[in-house]
Amino acid sequence: MILLKNGLVMQDELKKLDILIDDEKIIEIAPDIFGDYEVIDCSGRIIFPGLIDVHVHLREPGFEYKETIKTGSMSAAKGGFTTIMTMPNLKPVPDSVENLKIEMDIINKDSIVNIYPYGAFTKGEKGEELADIDDLAKYVKAISDDGVGVNNLELLDQGMKLVKKNNLVIASHAEDNIYKTAPKGEYLAVEREIKYAIKNDVKYHFCHMSTKESFDFIREAKKNGTEITCEVAPHHLFLNEEMIKGNPNFKMNPPLRSREDMEATINALLDGTADIIASDHAPHSKEEKQREYSKCPNGIIGLETTLPLVYTNLIKTNKASLLDLKRWLVDNPSRIFNLENNEIKVGNNCNLVVIDIDNPHTYSIDEIKSKAQNSPYIGYKLYGWPVLTICNGKIVYQKDGK
Ligand code: DOR
Ligand code: ZN
Ligand code: ZN
Fold this sequence. Notes:
Blueprint: E1 2-10, E2 14-22, E3 25-30, E4 38-41, E5 46-49, E6 51-56, H1 69-78, E7 81-86, H2 97-110, E8 114-117, E9 119-120, H3 133-136, E10 142-144, H4 153-165, E11 169-172, H5 183-200, E12 203-206, H6 212-221, E13 228-232, H7 234-238, H8 259-270, E14 276-277, H9 286-290, H10 306-315, H11 322-337, E15 352-356, E16 361-362, E17 381-382, E18 385-391, E19 394-398
One zinc ion is lined by residues 55, 57, 87, 146, 280, 282.
């Protein structure tokens, strides 16, 4: 049994409490628990529910040279995430139960955190023919063609009907195929997809929103009864196009936008238009990211730095509270995607992260758990690093391996 002593436990508020863990469960929470247990001193640390990232690329099956379920889940654990959702741009694409099972078998064998794979929206993510959504529904929480926009509106409409029938969520990579990655490519797609989502009354989630206009459309759409939600990524909150300077580790899709768009992204999060922070963890090999800027692939890793970036920039600066942090990284992802809520309470599976808020730490290449190293945040001095992550009662990450 593991006893976490003297931590500041995040429930509805912060309280100094001990937590006793037996097997996978939390069995007691009280001000002073004593006994012959494996004691971990958490004095001065915050104990937070396990974080949830609804937008992660783990590359397996198909692109194991970039990342695997094993290394990606280790990266999640280091970042304090005990629950993640994996995107379907894989080989094979999980567009049928047969293909999805290939991914699920590896998850069951290798993952150290809880993983919920997305099913694809179209066959091979080609945007021509719907995936086997009815069959996939038994195994997945949500459907997505992330990486590409769905531009065949007839297909979008039909797919929405199937997703609605099965009470799933669609996660949209909104990108118009004429304007592509320009701001207009995003917000045009957002505007038209909202119309279809409302028409079909389907739960519709926009991935990685990055322009002021997109947030304006979503803010308006939320006044309607249809459940329209969106996520923002740390890079669109804290980086902008002025910082790119030809560096491949600042290249992703959607790309970094103007300073005004970055500010609109922060405002959308603070005013509740954006519901979730998700990393869009997108690992690529060193060779791929060493190509010149125009030839290197889109994407940066993000699982390990999401919490420290948000803590340092928004919580430590008092722009937002720990309860906001819990809404963006635990409560809203859990509610919108129908996942475990990771609440710290007796009887629940123990999914939690212990966070050091006092000691700044500079992110370095040597500590990365992901197989990839394509992070723009190497050398960033940040606060709010996980020091211990527990998933289903097991220690899945401990700083310095202690
Ligand atoms: O930056 C990105 N990386 N954007 C995407 O749309 C795809 C993702 C990836 O799979 O690498
Ligand atoms: Zn995407
Ligand atoms: Zn993505």
